[in-house]
Amino acid sequence: MLQNSAAARQADREQLIHSLRRHATWMRRRSIQMVFEAGQGHPGGDLSAIDILATLYFGILRYDPKEPNDPMRDRFVMSKGHCTGALYTALAGAGYFPEEELTTYLKPDSLLNGHPNRTYLPGVETNTGPLGHGLPVSVGIAIAGQIDAADYRTFVLTGDGELQEGSMWEAAMLAGHRKLDKLTAIVDRNRLQQGASTEETNALEPLADKWRAFGWEVIELDGHDHAALFDTLGAPAAGKPRCVIAHTVKGQGVSYMRDQAGWHHGVPSPDQYSQALAELVLEEPLA
């Protein structure tokens, strides 16, 4: 009986991981379409972050899109706020607003700004854009939960170049001091920022040691491995905040964008757009 139960759990897990991969492919296709039709955007960072967001929104986070301010919800903060192509596709897929709204991306009077705005859009926990703000706000959210003895978890996704901001390390120090074990910071470690690599611009390594020195548990993994992301992000931390350093590739999924700093922002040509969609094959529709 126990063996059969274990087999059933494994089958359910495999089905979920397959679903996460399909969601990620759909998000990549839609985000590229959004950037192409809007004529602007940040596709490289969108594509590096999408597997993380797909795992969170369709495998980990506790939320109800019909009650976006439910006090028991888990919180997610997109600290790298310029990567709205990734965030908006996740929110649409999660049911916060109709998928058709994605066609308005960056257009006049659209709710889908270049940076997420809580005033306009359900599911956005806080406005982000200027880098270095998301982690400090997330620490505040986690402290509030700690004071209230609430059981919600707070997740924040940061860019690696963003870690050159001093406010990030002030927040990290406070989180470690407060032992905020319901706070998880995920670093989208694609090693590229606007114009150059992070290590050329202002070196971050040894990055894991820095987080540990501030009192965080640190886990490093492949940021495109949905199974590893699901297992790690779903597990509770033990007495301290957790930093997940997700090693990713800028432009993941589109061959000509992969690992290219020039695609930090940019718009595919019509031929490049067609090539991207041809490479991002959604073999079966989402359920």
Instruction: Output the radius of gyration.
Output: 18 Å
Residue share in helix: 40-55%
Shape estimate: globular
Helix/strand/pairing category: alpha/beta
**Strand sequence of the main sheet, in spatial order?**
1-2-3-7-6
Oligomer: single chain
Sheet-strand content, in percent, reads 5-15%
CATH fold assignment: Rossmann fold
CATH superfamily: Thiamin diphosphate (ThDP)-binding fold, Pyr/PP domains
| Regions with little confidence, pLDDT below 50 for 5+ residues | none
Q: How does CATH name the architecture?
A: 3-Layer(aba) Sandwich
Largest sheet: 5 strands, parallel
Q: What's the N-to-C terminus distance? A: 31 Å
Name the features:
287 residues; alpha/beta; Rossmann fold; five-stranded parallel β-sheet; two-stranded antiparallel ribbon; 7 strands; 44% helix; globular
Structure description:
Helices cover 44% and strands 11% of the residues. The protein contains nine helices and seven strands. The chain is an alpha/beta fold and 287 residues long.
